[in-house]
Amino acid sequence: MTVIESNNRHSAINRKKLDQIKTLTADLSGWEFSQEKEGVKLYSKNVEGSSIPLVRGDYLLKTNDFTAEQVAVVATLPGARAIWDEKFHSSEVKEAFSKWETFFWVRLNTPWPISNRDFVGCNLRDMSQDLCYISMASVEDDSVGAVSGCVRGNLICSGWKLEKVEGGVQITYVTQVDLAGSIPSSFLRNVQLQVPLCAGKVAEYISSYGSPPVSGDMTCGFVKELFDHKKREHTVQLDGQGDAAWSFSSKMYPNGVKVNASSGQVEISGNSIQLTGVNGPTTVTISKA
Questions:
Q1: Helix or strand or coil: residue 63?
Q2: Angle, CA 268 vertex, CA 267 and CA 270 arms, to 5°
Q3: What does the pLDDT read at residue 230?
Q4: Degrees (nearest 5) of the Cα angle 276, 279, 282?
Q5: Which residues of 100-117 are buried (b: 16+ CB within 10 A; e: fewer)?
Q6: Is 12 exposed, middle or buried (CB count within 10 Å of its CB: 0-12, 13-18, 19+)?
Q7: What would the CATH number be for the domain defined by 11-209?
Q8: 173-208 pLDDT per residue, tens
Q9: START domain location, by residue (predicted)?
């Protein structure tokens, strides 16, 4: 797909960071292989002018049961991340500029006595069924103040490339993060090793549980979404007038789904959900049948 243009206050930096992720994941030029762990190939790359290296994890999900887009949803939805990422504490979408671009706050766990780290940033996605790019990076925004118990870190560059390839889905995760504050060097080295393993953790999740519902074409307004892994319940807030669509995974919903919408008409056909006639603020809940 083509990234939707926007004039939001962070649009320029968001698109710059997405382009950076596309460049960094285009090939292995400049990346130094370090080791393979848990099936994930780990790489690092020095950045001129910075003491913090880029790190990368590559993993091949060897199945044709899932699309790249479904894997991307597992990688990005906080409700799924809370299961596959042991460092995840909590997050909140502060503002949705569109279905594909959000302003967020996230908090990550750290071992005692190191203070938790939090980040304020933006997420921009370029999504299609077979190829997805996702960027996440810190932005300067005074609307989110300091949080008690946390040290504000800097997510310099972070993102995913999910690509349908022969034999499965290639998962690539890249990140460069400044955890700020006083951090033992042993912990920093451990972070640089552990973080790229996220590529394998995402694969483990989707292999075990399947994917949360994937958004399709949407002509109404998107406000926010929330996925509850335990209930397998996906809640979406819409607004304006128009239609919306989703697809769902048979692995996660083997007996199908039930859909409740506070406006419009719902039709379920195979693994597709179509909602027509959205009119004003609307809550949509997709859950197990």
A1: coil
A2: 145
A3: 98
A4: 90
A5: bbbbbbbbbebeeeeebb
A6: exposed
A7: 3.30.530.20
A8: 999 999 998 888 877 778 777 899 999 999 999 999
A9: 21-191
Q: Which residues contact 276 (CB under 8 A, 6 or more apart)?
A: 243, 264, 265, 267
Grouping H, G, I as helix, E, B as strand and the rest as coil, residue 26 is coil
State the Cα–Cα distance between residues 12 and 164, nearest whole angstrom: 29
Angle between helices 68-76 and 198-209 (to 10 degrees): 110
User: Is the pTM above the cut of 0.85?
Assistant: yes
Question: Under a CB-based contact definition with an 8 Å cutoff, are residues 106 and 94 in contact?
Answer: no
Q: What CA–CA distance (Å, rounded) separates 158 from 136?
A: 5
Reported as type and span, the H/E element at residue 44 is: strand 40-45
- Give residue limits of the domains in the chain: 11-209, 214-288
Contact between 177 and 106 under an 8 Å Cβ cutoff? The reply is no
Q: Are strands 116-127 and 150-152 parallel, antiparallel or unpaired?
A: parallel
Cβ(11)–Cβ(120) below 8 Å = no
Contact 233, 289 (CB under 8 A): no
Radius of gyration of the chain from Cα atoms? 19
Closest Cα partner for 253 from 275, 217, 286?
A: 286
Least Cα distance to 244 among 287, 277, 269, 211 occurs for 277
Q: How many whole angstroms from its chain centre is CA 226?
A: 13
What's the rounded mean pLDDT across residues 125-150?
A: 97
- The pLDDT of residue 115: 93
DSSP letter at 149? T
Q: Around Cβ 32, how many Cβ atoms within 10 Å?
A: 12
Asked, as a colleague might, if the bond just before 281 is cis with ω within 30 of 0, I would say: no
Mean model confidence pLDDT for the chain: 95
